[in-house]
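From the shared-data thread, chain only:
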Amino acid sequence: KRDFHRDVGYIYRKQLEEAEWLVVNKCDLLSADDLADLQARLDRDYPGKRVFLLSAKTGEGMEEWFAALLQHETAGGQEVEVDYERYAEGEALLGWVNSEARCQPRQEVDWGQWLARVARTIATRLEESGHEVGHFKMSVETDGRRYRVHQVMSGEEVVSENTSDPRAGRLSSTGETPVLPAEQLRPTDETPVLPAEQKATLLVNLRAEGEAKALKAIVTQSFDAQSEVEVLFQKQAAFQPGKPVPVHRIAVA
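Structure, as tokens:
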């Protein structure tokens, strides 16, 4: 498996150094041995930081984290030495794509399943093209319902969520069988598949390593490749972050 360019990794490490706490989600996906190893490495690499290991899905560790948030007063930002030239080089390697579209079904459509299928297509094309994913999120909203998918890194599963179904399962970016059967990804109130005349709003947020124009093309072409829904993009922004220019600097004593 490939990883981010070292200059992109530099940005991530600096963000961890600056943080007062480190909060690790999705710990339900790791074994006890892996969690112990992760805790040990964080303690070694970022000494003195409080680490919370939790799972928003199962609720494990959430109560401790919330209690700490309510009781703790921040000590202020950590002073971190930053090489701004290297930071800028890392930022320039990342592309952003933000899009908003109106969707009109051409036939009866299950919005959750449709969104997950397109997300798998995008994730696969990104991986095949060598674009390492920083984060990838999409949502489609219609008639008070919202369906979401997200991926946190290349090669990982695309997770599908239905806000009206707490059992929302996971769909593999490789197109493997869902952890939960497809019918269990539908609303628990057994609302029928939405009619073809039902419109929806689509939002796309992608940050990945690569040229922004190339990332935008992958997103657009993936929606063009499907025939169930007419997707009309109203807003599309694709860009590389600019070089950080700090107004104030902390002088070294």
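Residues 102 and 201 are 5 Å apart (CA to CA).
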